[in-house]
Specification:
Elements: H1 8-31, H2 38-51, H3 58-68, H4 78-86, H5 91-112, H6 117-132, H7 137-153, H8 160-173, H9 181-193, H10 200-213, H11 215-225, H12 234-239, H13 250-272, H14 282-300, H15 308-333, H16 337-358
Helix pairs in contact: 1-6, 2-5, 2-6, 5-7, 6-15, 7-8, 7-9, 7-14, 9-14, 13-16, 14-15
Length: 359
């Protein structure tokens, strides 16, 4: 077993590397160059998941459970115990066995709709990386996403019927990789089956106050469906988490606005000026747009009501499919005014993060 300890200097190097790679690929988008490529992206995000180790986080929780076995990690799924038994003395190799397949499946979701790697790299590093590296849910989610992608694009395969059953099996199979997946599987099937409607945003805004008022009942039901409620009080702790909104200073509040602005703006343009409906990958676009929107919507039902941790968990989960969707949108609309405005909002977000880290 490696002697693993928190290393703030290594964390800083990882953060700088992410910013530099993202900005380089953004430069490649602007200059119509190839970028660093998909293979580089797989290797880069895998290394990030191994070496970025904030002092507080699941990296250390997983290490404790990996070393302690079942007694220290009852709420792990059987797959991860089996993998730990197969790789008993090397925690980093155990992480590679989980996060490498997740990285490959995520990048495959970009490739299936022929998104240029520079788009995928820039958007994934900005929006999806914080979700990918953090929890084992990365593997479960990636299996669900590749299932969704194959379902949407099955008509492009020679064996359409076989691909239909494979895609459904992948979506359902993700349940065995993380106990929270039933909720996301439900949202996925809803996203796959609903027809595209621009007025989803209006309907959601009308429904939000009603749903917000019955938050606790909704939260309890979702957590029970996801088997989280019975895991060492995990579910209850999400709903009763301290509400940090009331204690945040003005810098924190500005940071929230800057962080959320690109996402809110994108949903508006994605619904009201979508990619061409007749293209072969429109179902993919519609499904991942719906999925990311519904999960973000759900996250804000827990905003400001003593459940900020659950809000953050849900919001971050939405960011990987969000990155899929934005990259596809860029493929069709790059150079348009709406994309330019989105770029400005994202650059402001990055500048704010860098500035506040320096301060």
């Amino acid at each position: 077993m490696f002697n693993l300890t928190p290393n703030p200097f290594l964390d800083s190097i990882c953060t700088v590397a992410v910013v530099l790679v993202a900005l380089y690929n953004y430069y490649c988008i602007k200059t119509k160059q190839k970028g660093t490529g998909y293979v580089f992206l797989v290797v880069f995000i895998l290394l990030y998941s191994l070496f970025y180790r904030p002092e507080i986080g699941d990296f250390w929780h997983y290490l404790d459970r990996y070393q302690g076995g079942v007694a220290f990690g009852e709420h792990w799924e059987e797959f991860y115990f089996w993998l730990a038994a197969l790789i008993p003395n090397n925690f980093l190799l155990w992480r590679v066995a989980i996060w490498l397949p997740a990285a490959i499946l995520i990048i495959r979701c970009f490739e299936l709709v022929k998104v240029p790697s520079s788009y995928a790299t820039t958007l994934f590093l900005i929006f999806g990386l914080a979700t990918y590296y953090y929890t084992r849910n990365a593997l479960a989610s990636s299996v669900l996403y590749i299932g969704m992608a194959l379902f949407c694009l099955r008509d492009g395969f020679e064996r359409k019927r076989l691909m239909f059953f494979v895609s459904i099996a992948l979506c359902l199979g993700s349940w065995f990789l993380h106990k929270s997946m039933p909720m996301y599987i439900g949202i996925a099937f809803l996203s796959l089956l609903l027809p595209f409607k621009k007025n989803v945003i209006i309907g959601s805004l009308i429904a939000f106050p009603i749903l917000y008022g019955i938050l606790i009942a909704i939260g309890s039901d979702f957590l029970q469906i996801s088997d989280l409620w019975i895991q060492e009080g995990v579910g209850e702790s999400y709903l009763n988490d301290e509400n940090t909104m009331s204690t945040g200073n003005w810098i924190w509040r500005i940071g929230l606005i800057v962080s959320y602005a690109p996402v809110f703006y994108y949903f508006f343009i994605a619904f009201y000026k979508p990619i061409p409906i007749h293209v072969s990958d429109f179902s993919y676009y519609k499904s991942f747009l719906y999925f990311s929107f519904f999960v973000v919507f759900l996250s804000f039902l827990f905003w400001g009501q003593g459940s900020i941790a659950l809000h953050g968990r849900l919001y971050k989960t939405a960011m990987i499919p969000f990155a899929f969707n934005v990259a596809q949108y860029f493929k069709y609309h790059w150079g348009s005014k709406q994309c330019t405005y989105f770029e400005y909002l994202v650059l402001i977000k990055i500048a704010w993060v860098v500035l506040t880290d320096i301060i």
